[in-house]
Amino acid sequence: MQKYDQAKTELETTQRLVAADSEDYKKVVAELAEVSNLINVAGAATSTQPTIGQLEGTGGTVATPQQQEPLVNEGEKTQTPPTQPSTQNP
Predict the structure, then answer these.
(1) DSSP character for 83?
(2) How far is the C-alpha of 25 from the C-alpha of 31, rounded, in Å?
């Protein structure tokens, strides 16, 4: 069985890693077009795997991290010592 969808995912990854003005990039683009055509011909156009763009999110934006409370280990909590009643001699 031909795994064109996996080949397409790998080529998309490679395309993002090589310099856009290199011969390797041109080769990857050509192979990606060929694999995309094979997917359409083979009837496997409905892939269940997400594309690289879908995995990265739309527009290439990165989510802003939210502030997190400092982590504290239960055994290392700073506790105030219990107060003892003062003993005064009458």
Answers:
(1) P
(2) 10
Residues in the chain: 90
Report the distance separating Cα 34 and Cα 42, nearest Å: 12
Pull the structure tokens for residue 53.
């763009």
What is the Cα–Cα distance from 18 to 28, expressed in whole angstroms? 9
pLDDT, tens digit (0-9, with 9 covering 90-100), for 52-90: 777 776 554 556 677 878 888 877 766 555 566 666 665
* pTM score of the predicted model: 0.46
How many other C-beta atoms can be found within 10 angstroms of the C-beta atom of residue 25?
16
**Identity of the residue numbered 55:** L
Taking only the tens place, the pLDDT of each residue in 78-88 is 655 556 666 66
Alpha-carbon dihedral sign for residues 69, 75, 78, 82:
positive
